[in-house]
Design brief:
The chain is mainly α and about 600 residues long. Helix content is about 70%, strand content about 0%. The chain is built from 26 helices and 2 strands. Strands 1-2 form a two-stranded antiparallel ribbon. It starts with a helix and ends with a helix.
């Protein structure tokens, strides 16, 4: 307030001084008069200009501060309304992430009463393989130093006694390593400043039972562990909002995505029941990867930074989870199908393949030469597709453009991928993923062995349950996806049919065989193909509906897009769907 008063006084003095100066200048003294004298200006006093100068400097400093946001906007090439729109979008994304973090934290607390459990009981709450993963986190934080703990899990003698194994390589324990390092840094820093990191109290269990000590706060190892898992998945829903907004071109599309995710929450994630599972750490990076891939497919000339970011997100997705390679296999297959139909240029697909190859090699190095990565169908598919694109000119010489070329390239990819997979497995002697192939084989045949019988005992590895589509119907997720699928599929069939008719009358010239993208909206076709792939995986293994349901939520955002059908009709449909979902949620809460 003092600064503001001082500035007002300066302005008043400056305003009062100016008329006086003008009055004195009109009454010129004969002594100072003269048309061309070199004397001082009439009526000027020494030091009179000092106060206006200080006010001008203060105003100039204020203008410089106000010009900083303007210079940032100018550097980014954004107008003020564009910056406001981006700010609103980021604020809504943050709200969605915070709500999801709060929601999953409360669900976990209500299910386990985690804050009232003793340290031993918290550890026992991590059942099955979850307890195994958490034990390595505990090993690192209880070791004399971080390097000692890391060495202990890399030379483990307990898990498969008497063998000594590298559990970091065997069980994809990078999340535990990172969290353990953060925990050690956090606790040591707080101890240095004398700040309490947890609050403990005695919990009375009732008559005949001894009270137990229960601690809550980031200083408690189990509490620290699950808190960061929930924060990561909160960020995931923020990415979902940005993904839906970008894909549909409307913030309403992002809101629809978030609503669909919340109303199908039990079908979309298991993080509130099983925080330490690998998918809890890995899947958020798949959402980021899909968002970056959508940007690359939509942009005519994406920069190198987009491909670098895509590669980094690939690494973060693959490192925590062995199954990530199968998801990326479906992505590569969908991109290759988009290329075959003319929705993706050969040059862009080659750049994407190169990015995936570099990411795969980086993971191979970080996983201490895990041969399962190089012997996967994902790695074989990358090499086979690269070879088919490199031979596209030779294929065009012997095959007519159109269906014949498409079938040839498709069969070539399938056969070469299987052959390469078999050869690399024999050469490198890797059999770690044999149980996955056996599980898929048991779905189509009567084949059974010990591993497949163990897996199929659990419901999540069986075929998808019949109740799942009914739940999709109740939340309108399935009807909206069918509507969008029909709209995009009809447009795609029309484009392909027109192209086939054109190639019959005007075959491409020899210098036009570099296979540029023939049609627009290639990212929409890719998302439809990816939806089909996720549907197949979910039908075969119910656990994998955790990929299908979120992708359906993303596809639901297209109900607000101008790229699919009539925008006015879609806008009305989106308002109707949003209203019905809110009513549905309200009735569910009341019941």
């Amino acid at each position: 307030m003092a600064v503001k008063t001082r500035r007002q006084n300066c302005r008043e003095q400056h305003a009062q001084a100016s008329p006086a100066d003008r009055e004195r200048s009109s009454r010129v003294s004969p002594a100072h008069g003269g048309s061309g004298g070199g004397g001082k200006a009439p009526g000027r006093r020494p030091g009179r200009e000092a106060k206006p100068a200080s006010c001008n400097s203060a105003q100039l400093h204020k203008n410089r501060l106000l010009s900083v946001p303007a210079s940032i906007r100018h550097h980014l090439g954004l107008s003020l309304p564009a910056c406001i729109r981006i700010g609103i979008t980021l604020a809504l994304a943050a709200v969605a992430g915070i709500l999801h973090w709060y929601h999953v934290s409360n669900l976990f607390e209500n299910d386990r009463h985690f804050s009232h459990l003793s340290t031993l009981e918290k550890e026992m709450a991590f059942r099955t393989e979850m307890g195994l993963y958490y034990s390595y986190f505990k090993t690192i934080i209880e070791a004399p130093s971080f390097l000692n703990g890391l060495s202990s899990i890399m030379n483990d003698r307990l898990t498969e006694y008497p063998l000594v194994i590298n559990t970091l390589k065997r069980f994809n324990l990078y999340p535990e390593v990172v969290l353990a390092s953060w925990y050690r840094v956090y606790t040591s820093t707080m101890d240095f400043f004398g700040i309490a990191t947890k609050m403990c109290w005695s919990v009375n269990r009732g008559e005949g039972l001894n009270p137990v000590e229960s601690c809550e706060g980031l200083g408690d190892p189990a509490y620290f562990y699950v808190t960061f898992v929930f924060i990561l998945n909160g960020i995931m829903l923020s990415l979902f909002f940005l993904y839906g907004t970008y894909l549909s071109g409307s913030r309403l599309g992002g809101i629809v995505t978030v609503l669909c995710f919340f109303f199908n929450h039990g079908e979309s994630t298991r993080v509130m029941w099983t925080p330490p599972l690998r998918e809890s750490f890995s899947y958020p990076f798949l959402v980021l990867q899909l968002l970056l891939l959508t940007h690359i497919l939509r942009s005519p000339n994406p920069g190198k930074g987009a491909f670098v970011a895509l590669g980094v997100s690939n690494v973060f997705f693959m490192l925590p989870w062995q199954f990530a390679q199968f998801v990326l296999l479906t992505q590569i297959a969908s991109l290759f199908a988009s290329y075959i139909m003319g929705y993706l240029a050969a040059a862009k697909l080659q750049t994407l393949l190169l990015t995936h190859m570099i990411s795969l090699l980086a993971c191979f190095v970080l996983m201490f030469g895990n041969a399962m990565l190089l012997t996967s169908f994902y790695a074989s598919s990358l090499v086979s597709i690269w070879g088919i694109i490199a031979l596209r000119h030779d294929i065009a010489k012997y095959c007519k453009p159109g269906i014949v070329t498409w079938v040839t390239e498709g069969l070539g990819w399938l056969i070469s991928t299987v052959i390469l997979k078999g050869l690399t497995s024999v050469v490198l002697g890797a059999t770690d993923d044999a149980h996955i192939s056996s599980l898929i084989k048991s779905k189509f045949t009567s084949y059974k062995d010990f591993d497949t019988m163990m897996y199929t005992c659990a419901a999540e590895f069986d075929f998808i349950e019949k109740e799942t589509p009914l739940r999709y119907m109740k939340t309108l997720l399935l009807p909206v996806n069918l509507l969008i699928f029909a709209a995009i599929a009809s447009s795609t069939i029309k484009d392909v049919w027109t192209y086939l008719r054109w190639t019959k009358t005007e075959p491409p010239k020899a210098n036009q065989q570099d296979r540029p993208a023939q049609f627009a909206n290639g990212e929409l076709v890719y998302h439809i193909l990816q939806l089909i792939a996720f549907t197949v995986l979910a039908v075969l293994i119910m656990r994998l509906k955790l990929f299908l349901t979120p992708h359906m939520c993303i596809m639901a955002s297209l109900i607000c897009s101008r790229q699919v059908g009539n925008h006015k009709i879609k806008l009305k449909c989106s308002h109707l769907m949003t209203g019905i979902q809110v009513i549905n949620c309200t009735l569910f809460k009341i019941s």
